[in-house]
Amino acid sequence: MAKPLFEGCIFDLDGVIVDTAKYHFLSWNKLARNLGFEIKEEDNEQLKGISRVDSLEIVLKIGNYTLPQKEKLKCLKSKNDYYLEYVQKLTAKDALPGVEEFLQELKKESYKISLGSASANARGIIDKLNFTQYFHAIVDGTDVQKSKPHPEVFLRASALLQIDPKKIVVFEDAQKGIKAAHSAGCLAVGVGDPEVLSEADINIKGFKGYSMNDLIRSLSELAAK
Ligand code: BG6
Ligand code: MG
C-alpha cells in the first residue's frame, strides 16, 4: 500500500481560521496611539505569529519608545483588554470562508488535527467559534515558552497528535509561522499572499473552494519533485 502523504494537520488560528489578525493590529495601534505614535499596516507582518510580550517589544521599537518593566506590564494588559473587546462578539459566522468545511473533510477522513497558535486567547476563540469539536489537540500561547519562528508550538502539537512532524501539514498566515513549521520538519501551506509567504511549500489564498483533494494533489506533486 502507498504511504500516506500526510497523517495530520496543524492550524494556526489568527488569520487562518478566523480574521482576528486585524483585531490584534487594531489593538496594538490603539496602544501605540496612547503612547503617541502610530504603527502602520506594513509593520503588521512582523507582529504576526509571535507572542504578546515579543510583539510589545517590536511595537515599542517602531515608536522608538522605552518603558520600565512595570509600564510594559500595564501596556500588555491594555492591549489585551482592547483585543478582548474586539473579539467578544465573535461567533461561528466569523470563521474564515471554507475553513469549517475543510476541517469537516479532514475529520471525516480521520486525519488528526491540532491547533498551533501563539495566542493565549486561542482556546476562548475556538470555543466562541464552536470549533473545539474538530481538534484532537490544542497548543496555544499558554503552553509554549518560545515564539514562532521557534518550532516549539508545532513540535508540541505533533507530539500530542503522536505523529512524526514530517507527516504533518501546517497551515499558516505568518512568515515566522512558515519558518517555525519548517524548523519543526513539517510541510507548510501559506494561507494568504503568496508573495509574502513565498517560503511556503504550497500557497493558497484561503480555504474558500479548497478541498482535501486539492491538498493531496499538491502534496503528490511535491513528493514527485
Ligand atoms: C498570534 C498572533 O497568533 O498570537 C499575534 O498572530 C498575537 O498577532 C499573538 O500577538 C499573541 O496573542 P495573544 O492573544 O496572546 O495576545
Ligand atoms: Mg496567524
* CATH T-level fold name of the largest domain: Rossmann fold
Mean pLDDT: 96
Biggest sheet details? 6 strands, parallel
Total strand segments: 6
Annotated CATH architecture of the largest domain: 3-Layer(aba) Sandwich
How much beta, percentage-wise? 5-15%
Shape: globular
Bound small molecules, deduplicated: 6-O-phosphono-beta-D-glucopyranose, magnesium ion
Strand arrangement across the biggest beta sheet: 3-2-1-4-5-6
Instruction: Indicate the CATH class of the largest domain.
Output: Alpha Beta
Q: In DSSP terms, counting alpha (H) and pi (I) runs of 4 or more, how many helices?
A: 8
Radius of gyration: 18 Å
Write up what this structure looks like:
The chain is an alpha/beta fold. The chain has two domains: 8-19 and 93-224, HAD superfamily/HAD-like (Rossmann fold), CATH 3.40.50; 21-87, Orthogonal Bundle (DNA polymerase, domain 1), CATH 1.10.150. It has eight helices and six strands; from the N terminus they run βααααβαβαβαββα. A six-stranded parallel beta sheet has the order 3-2-1-4-5-6, sandwiched between helices. α7 links the parallel β4 and β5. α1 packs across α3 (69-87). The two termini are 21 Å apart.
